[in-house]
Structure formats: structure tokens, C-alpha cells
């Protein structure tokens, strides 16, 4: 594949991904609105709890998908159809086995469901039946996913995005209609399962049509040397992936266990908004990953450190604006959208936003470590982070309440990945001390906190009682926080370099600032 084709695929993936992501997010808000109006918040808690339980069970995947997709790049580039088929056969057999493990593990967990809930929900449906439907909805993808691997490896992820999101939009529309007509939660979940089956069945058909030579699998198996190499990579990723899944998936379970499903249901509305913003920002920032990897591989002039500083500055700038807006607008939006009875306290909102900021501003260090292949040096950090998160979440949930769970997650990230990632890349990639990075991180965090206070008092005169005033307040806070950040960093080399890059792009693309 030539560079022009690669660029076209990157643009298509970004464009299609962003457009469909925004559409699905908007549809998700509509769906959530009807869900809350027609059912209770306890149903929301059930949804969130079971999703997180199955997320944790998914650690059985162990990163095999990433390892196999990586191995598909070379044979696809060389048009080695035999090797592609051998890998797909291996992928199919491995994932079918993992799917069965997931199913058995999920079924074994059924008797323990009451232990994960403080008080059993007051709903008419059988909670065990609902859980089994969620389990099948998760497991079914494992028997089809090998068919999507070749599409991903061929850099045509936009095909998968269009299919998955189109079915998702159709699913949401039908779920809203069903809920409105029947108020039946069983039908709501069964429809979700049906749409999942249809989605992956269509992707399997599309894959066979795009790559007809994969329809018939070979009789022989993948050479032991290749399969051994794949599993060797998987072992290196196992500890990292398992710990990361536990770190990201336990909050909802702890909330359910110690605070109840009703509280979890209230939080799920805030989680929906944070997840929506995070997913959109991910479409932007993930576009840097491949470029960073290439830069590290060919860097002979120390340029990667300069780019790292710029990326760190840019992500902090973006998350400064979004974090301040989130904190000051969160409850205004929930009030307009759902009503005051669905509000959480300012302390809880702050703890959620703090986690959002901490997670987002670690992007530069995380990306450089990933693209540098520094997995072994980091493998025990997620274990420490996950363990600390569980212990602190339980302790602080009992003493502080809901806010304690998110403060625990932020603290566990800061004291592990927050200082280990930068330390690893400065030592192994940049060959310099990391102290300056830590000082910048702390100084910028203090700046963001100060800007938040300024924006709070400056925007207090804006009374939000409708969507128009919400937009006005949002624009005011965005402009003010962004301006404050830029003014206080005019003297930094990161700002000067990014400004120069921006002006050069304007000059090159639109002839601005002269020829």
C-alpha cells in the first residue's frame, strides 16, 4: 500500500469515525432520555453494573486480537493470501475458545450477583435473566470478531465503524419505540442482543465479499513458531491488560455494592456525558499515535522530545477547557435534560471531572511509552494502580461516599502511571531527567484550578434556564479559560512552536499571512 492510499484511509477512518461517533452520541442521549422517563434509575444501575461486570470478564481476551492484527500487516502488504488465511484460522479457533471461557465464567458468576448489589433492585423483571441476556450479547462477538480483524489490519476500519454505528442507530430507534409502546425491559435487552447478532453477521458477510480468498479456510494450521511468537507477545501484555480492565471496570461494581443501584443509575447519566466527550476527543488525539511511532523510529535529531513537549502542552490546553466547562456546566445540563432530581453534589461532580482531567493529560506520556514498545518496564504499574484503586475506593466510598470512588481512581492513576510513564520515556527514549516534566504537570494543574475559580465567578451572572443560555455560558467559559491558558504560556517554547506550526499551515493551505 502506497503512502497516498494510507493517507486516504487515515482520513476516511477519522472522518467516518468522528461523524458516526457524534451521531450515535446524540442518539444515545435521546435513548437515555426516554429510558429515564419510561423506566426508573434502578434500571440504569442494572445496565451499568452488568456492562462493567462483563468488561472485567473480558480480560480473557488477553490482547490476542492486537497481537494477531499486528501479524496480519505484513502478509497483507505482500499479498500473501496463504499466511492471511492461516492467521485468520488461528484467530477464529482461539477466539471461539475464549468465547466459551467467557460464557462459562459468566454463568458461574450468576449465584454471586446478589453479593455485588447493596439492595436488590425493585424491578418486575428477573435480574438473572437480564444478566444472561447481557452475557450472550457480549459473548456473541467473540465468534465473529476474526472476520473484522482483516478489515482492521487492511486499514479500512471505516467499514466496521459505518456498519456498527448504523446498526446501533437503528437499534436505538427501535428500542425507543419498544419502550414507549410496551415499557418492557426484556424486549429492550433482547433487541440489543438481536442487533448485535445482525451487526456481526453482516460484517462477516462484508469481510468475505471484500476478501473472497478467505471464505475457505486452509486444512493446515499456523506454524508453531508463528503461534508461539504471538503468544509470547500476549504474555507480555497479559498483566498490563488484566490490571487495566480491573482499574477501569471496578468503580461501578463498588458503587453498586456499597452505595446502591439507584446511586449508580444517577452516576451513569454523568458517565454518559464524560464518555461522549472522551470518545470524541479520542478520535482527535489517537490520530497522533502512528505519527509518534514513526517519529520515534526515525528520529536522529532529538525531534521526538520537542514533539512530546508540544503534545503535552496541547493535551493540557484542551483538557483545561473541557474540564472547566464540564465542572461549571455539568449540573446545568443535567437540570435541562432530566431535571433537578437527577443531580449529584458539586463534590461528586468535581471528583468525576478530576478523573477526566488526570486521565486525559496523561495521553502524551502514555502514547510515547506505547509507541516505543516499553511494555516490560511498565508491566507492574497497572497492578499497583488497580490494587490501590480497589482498596481506596472501598475505604473512601464508606467514608466520603460517591466522590470517594472517583478520588481513589484519580489518586491511583497519579501515583502510578502519572509518574512512572514519564519516568520510563525520559530515561529510555529521551535519555534525560524527568524532573522538569513533573514541575510542568504540577504547575499546569495549579493553573487550571485557578482558571476554574476565575471562570466560576466570571460566569456567575449568567443564569441558565434554557438551552440557549446554556450555550452562551458554555461559549463564555470556553473562550475565557482558553484565553487565560494562552496568556499565561505566551513565553513558553511549546506555545511559540505550536503557533509557528499553525501559521505555516494557514500560509500553505489558504495563503494567509503572505506567500
Your description of this structure?
- This protein has 515 residues and is mainly α.
- Helices cover 79% and strands 0% of the residues.
- It has helices spanning 3-38, 41-57, 64-77, 81-108, 127-139, 145-153, 157-182, 185-210, 224-249, 251-258, 261-285, 287-298, 303-337, 346-361, 363-371, 381-399, 402-414, 417-430, 435-458, 467-487, 493-510.
- Helix 2 (41-57) packs across helix 5 (127-139) and helix 13 packs antiparallel against helix 20 (467-487).
- The two termini are 34 Å apart.
- The mean pLDDT is 80.
**Distance N to C terminus:** 34 Å
H/E element order: HHHHHHHHHHHHHHHHHHHHH
Q: What is the structural class?
A: mainly alpha
Shape: globular
Largest sheet: none
Q: Using only CA atoms, what is the Rg?
A: 24 Å
Give the helix level as a range of percent: over 70%
Low-confidence stretches: none
| Average predicted local confidence, pLDDT | 80
Please name the defining characteristics of this protein.
mainly alpha, 0% strand, globular
Furnish the topology, listing elements before pairings:
Layout: H1 3-38, H2 41-57, H3 64-77, H4 81-108, H5 127-139, H6 145-153, H7 157-182, H8 185-210, H9 224-249, H10 251-258, H11 261-285, H12 287-298, H13 303-337, H14 346-361, H15 363-371, H16 381-399, H17 402-414, H18 417-430, H19 435-458, H20 467-487, H21 493-510
Amino acid at each position: 500500500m502506497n503512502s497516498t492510499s494510507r493517507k486516504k484511509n487515515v482520513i476516511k477512518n477519522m472522518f467516518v469515525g468522528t461523524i458516526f461517533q457524534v451521531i450515535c452520541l446524540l442518539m444515545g442521549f435521546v435513548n437515555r432520555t426516554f429510558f429515564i422517563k419510561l423506566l426508573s434509575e434502578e434500571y440504569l444501575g442494572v445496565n451499568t453494573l452488568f456492562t462493567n461486570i462483563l468488561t472485567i470478564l473480558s480480560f480473557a481476551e488477553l490482547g490476542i486480537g492486537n497481537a494477531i492484527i499486528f501479524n496480519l500487516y505484513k502478509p497483507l502488504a505482500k499479498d500473501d493470501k496463504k499466511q492471511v488465511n492461516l492467521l485468520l484460522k488461528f484467530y477464529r479457533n482461539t477466539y471461539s475458545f475464549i468465547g466459551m471461557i467467557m460464557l462459562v465464567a459468566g454463568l458461574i458468576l450468576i449465584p454471586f450477583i446478589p453479593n455485588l448489589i447493596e439492595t436488590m433492585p425493585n424491578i418486575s423483571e428477573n435480574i438473572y435473566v437480564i444478566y444472561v441476556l447481557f452475557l450472550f450479547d457480549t459473548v456473541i462477538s467473540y465468534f465473529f470478531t476474526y472476520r473484522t480483524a482483516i478489515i482492521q489490519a487492511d486499514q479500512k476500519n471505516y467499514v466496521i465503524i459505518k456498519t456498527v454505528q448504523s446498526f446501533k442507530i437503528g437499534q436505538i430507534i427501535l428500542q425507543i419505540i419498544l419502550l414507549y409502546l410496551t415499557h418492557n425491559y426484556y424486549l429492550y435487552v433482547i433487541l440489543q442482543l438481536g442487533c448485535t447478532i445482525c451487526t456481526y453477521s453482516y460484517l462477516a458477510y462484508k469481510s468475505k465479499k471484500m476478501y473472497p480468498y478467505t471464505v475457505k479456510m486452509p486444512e493446515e494450521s499456523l506454524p508453531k513458531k508463528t503461534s508461539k511468537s504471538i503468544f509470547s507477545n500476549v504474555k507480555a501484555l497479559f498483566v498490563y491488560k488484566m490490571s487495566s480492565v480491573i482499574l477501569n471496570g471496578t468503580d461501578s461494581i463498588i458503587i453498586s455494592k456499597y452505595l446502591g443501584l439507584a446511586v449508580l443509575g444517577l452516576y451513569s447519566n454523568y458517565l454518559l456525558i464524560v464518555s461522549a466527550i472522551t470518545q470524541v476527543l479520542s478520535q482527535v488525539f489517537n490520530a497522533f499515535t502512528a505519527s509518534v511511532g514513526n517519529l520515534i523510529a526515525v528520529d536522529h535529531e532529538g525531534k521526538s522530545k520537542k514533539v512530546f513537549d508540544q503534545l503535552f502542552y496541547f493535551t493540557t490546553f484542551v483538557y483545561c477547557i473541557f474540564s472547566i466547562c464540564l465542572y461549571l456546566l455539568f449540573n446545568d445540563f443535567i437540570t435541562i435534560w432530566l431535571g433537578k432530581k437527577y443531580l449529584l453534589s458539586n463534590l461528586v461532580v468535581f471528583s468525576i471531572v478530576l478523573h477526566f482531567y488526570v486521565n486525559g493529560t496523561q495521553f502524551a506520556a502514555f502514547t510515547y511509552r506505547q509507541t516505543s514498545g516499553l511494555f516490560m518496564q511498565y508491566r507492574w504499574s497497572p497492578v499497583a494502580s488497580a490494587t490501590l484503586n480497589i482498596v481506596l475506593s472501598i475505604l473512601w466510598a464508606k467514608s466520603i461516599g460517591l466522590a470517594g470512588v472517583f478520588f481513589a481512581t484519580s489518586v491511583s492513576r497519579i501515583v502510578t502511571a502519572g509518574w512512572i510513564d514519564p519516568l520510563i520515556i525520559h530515561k529510555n527514549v529521551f535519555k534525560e531527567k524527568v524532573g522538569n516534566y513533573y514541575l510542568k504537570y504540577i504547575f499546569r494543574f495549579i493553573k487550571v484550578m485557578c482558571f476554574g475559580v476565575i471562570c466560576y465567578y466570571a460566569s456567575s451572572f449568567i443564569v441558565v434556564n434554557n438551552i440557549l443560555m446554556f450555550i452562551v455560558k458554555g461559549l463564555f467559559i470556553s473562550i475565557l479559560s482558553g484565553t487565560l491558558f494562552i496568556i499565561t504560556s505566551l513565553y513558553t517554547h511549546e506555545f511559540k512552536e505550536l503557533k509557528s506550526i499553525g501559521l505555516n499551515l494557514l500560509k500553505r493551505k489558504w495563503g494567509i499571512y503572505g506567500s
